Inverse folding.
């Protein structure tokens, strides 16, 4: 099954059972791979004189991006994960953050880079940065595959951004709606009727 992507391009879906749910593809697997490599080069240059980076990924959405991003780096990296909840079954963040899984190690004195799938309202990330800053890292920055400037409700220092986009709710490449669509290799917009099923 193929669905139309950007003008003049077709994207082959790896999960045909979702084909009828996707309205359009915004960023193809190719687009994502190129942007991830570009971010990897930029971050590697910026941290070349350090003893390495501690990547803190936010479960579950950032897993795909974090794995590919970590492999694109030419500096030593260690991986940590946190699980936060602010969406539930919703398409927008509630702003109320719960820690479902905390860090497994001390980050004091470490160069920490938070890896996000998407920054939309910024409320969850703002809370996370305050929380991590309280643990005394040597530096704390953010890399996000997607940023939605029009949706942001707080000013945030997101140093590394893959793509800026509008307010559409996207799925694929780790991002979900009601825990579905994470395995899609691209980022696509769901058809409106998908939201009305539940």
């Amino acid at each position: 099954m193929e669905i139309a992507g950007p003008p003049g391009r077709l994207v082959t879906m790896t999960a045909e059972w979702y084909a009828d749910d996707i309205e359009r593809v915004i960023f193809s697997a190719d687009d994502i791979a190129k942007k991830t490599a570009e971010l990897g080069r930029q971050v590697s240059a910026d941290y070349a004189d350090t003893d390495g980076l501690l990547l803190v990924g936010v479960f579950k959405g950032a897993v795909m991006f974090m794995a590919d991003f970590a492999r694109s780096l030419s500096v030593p990296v260690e991986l940590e994960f946190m699980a936060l909840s602010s969406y539930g079954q919703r398409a927008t963040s509630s702003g109320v953050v719960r820690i479902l899984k905390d860090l497994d190690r001390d980050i004091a004195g470490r160069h920490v880079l938070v890896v996000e799938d998407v920054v939309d309202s910024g409320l969850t990330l703002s809370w996370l940065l305050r929380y991590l800053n309280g643990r005394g890292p040597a530096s704390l920055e953010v890399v996000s595959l997607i940023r939605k400037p029009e949706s942001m409700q707080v000013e945030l220092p997101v140093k590394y951004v893959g793509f800026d986009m509008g307010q559409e709710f996207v799925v694929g490449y780790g991002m979900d709606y009601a825990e579905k669509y994470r395995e899609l290799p691209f980022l696509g917009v769901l058809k409106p009727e998908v939201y009305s099923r539940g």
Residues 1-11 have pLDDT under 50 and may be disordered.
